[in-house]
Amino acid sequence: MRVRQDMIDPELRRRGQVLRRVIGSARSEDDLRRARSLPGIVDRMLRARVPRGLVRHEERIPRPDGSQLRVLVYRAAASRPDAPGLLWIHGGGYVSGAAEMEAAALAPLILGSDAVVVTPDYRLSTEAPYPAALDDCYSTLLWLRDNAGRLGVRPDQIAVGGGSAGGGLTAATTLYARDRAEVRVAFQMPIYPMIDDRGRTPSALDNDAPVWDSVTNRSAWKLYLGDLSGSADVPAYAAPARATDLTGLPPTMTYVGSIEAFRDETVDYVEGLRAAGVPVEFREYPGAFHGFDAVAPRATVSRAATAFRNQWFGHAVRTFFAPQA
């Protein structure tokens, strides 16, 4: 899908032009590797910043190989016991990002519900391809279950959410949790999720929208899948759009921009969930490219998407529970 300027929401057009100049387009695997390796002041600032009204502390989870997974725990400075627990998975195309990077966006969810948010610094594709990131996210989900009492979290209200690659890992983690039956997830929020490595849907073919285009998407999937890339053996836990059975998944909220590469795969996922009897709330935002709410948070369309997310989260906290076995 070729994206003309007049197809972009008027409030997003200038930001899209700036982003094209700053981050470029049609990025190769080497481009993504180089971008990941660039140290910067912004990264250090993100690591130091805690949004007003929140407190943060760090935990370590042992991996089977003896290394440790770093996770951050965010909560309201004046929190209550028996709070909802949210595993939040950051985005970045599986190739970039850090646990700190979406704290500001999480603040309204935490302050509005007293939720305790746990976000893992999962291994990126440049460090280790699939299944490393999924293993880290699932380990964090189990850790959240096992430490619910200590963290002040209700064990019957553990949720998973994230955007972009974080949305893909959200869908993969809840699918994995359903199949392993070790931990129950009350609800999920896979926002504009990166879930289909095949790139064959109309919105994914030849998409040149700002932020995340078809070429960049293909490069990122190759890095994430490693030796599996291009094969018929890619499992649904790596690319959840390949899942053929969505029954038993938790109530779901998601949204997507109408001109982004992930539009069709998100719509297909929503339709599959509905066909499987899973409660779903979905919105499509006209003229919005990938990550629009993050890169242009003051735009009218971004405010609408953020309000939808926050309102649905409040509804989910009041409505959806999943007692642990």
Describe this structure in words.
- The structure is a single chain.
- With 325 residues, this protein is of the alpha/beta class.
- It has one domain: Rossmann fold (3-Layer(aba) Sandwich), CATH 3.40.50.1820.
- It is 39% helix and 18% strand.
- The protein is built from eleven helices and eight strands.
- Strands 1-2-4-3-5-6 form a six-stranded mixed sheet. It has a two-stranded parallel ribbon with strand order 7-8.
- The protein is globular, with a radius of gyration of 18 Å.
- The termini are far apart.
- The model has no long low-confidence stretch (mean pLDDT 94).
Keywords:
alpha/beta; 11 helices; globular; two-stranded parallel sheet; 8 strands
How are the secondary structure elements laid out?
Elements: H1 10-23, H2 29-37, H3 41-48, E1 54-62, E2 68-76, E3 83-89, H4 103-113, E4 116-120, H5 132-146, H6 148-151, E5 153-163, H7 165-180, E6 188-191, H8 214-225, E7 252-257, H9 263-275, E8 280-285, H10 292-295, H11 300-319
Parallel strand pairs: 3-4, 3-5, 5-6, 7-8
Antiparallel strand pairs: 1-2, 2-4
Helix pairs in contact: 4-11, 5-7
Gist of the model:
The protein is α/β, with parallel strands linked by helices and 325 residues long.
Largest sheet: 6 strands, mixed
**Low-pLDDT residue spans:** none
Q: Note the run of SSEs as H and E.
A: HHHEEEHEHHEHEHEHEHH
Q: Termini, distance in Å?
A: 46 Å
- Annotation, overall tally of beta strands: 8
Broad structural category: alpha/beta
What proportion of the residues is helical, as a percent range?
25-40%
Tell the overall outline. Answer: globular
Number of domains: 1
What order do the strands of the largest sheet run in, or round the barrel if closed? 1-2-4-3-5-6
Calculate the mean pLDDT score and round it: 94
The CATH superfamily label reads Alpha/Beta hydrolase fold, catalytic domain
Gyration radius (Cα, Å) is 18 Å
Number of continuous helical runs = 11
Per CATH, what is the topology? Rossmann fold
Give me the CATH architecture, please.
3-Layer(aba) Sandwich
CATH class descriptor name: Alpha Beta
Fraction of residues in β-strands = 15-25%
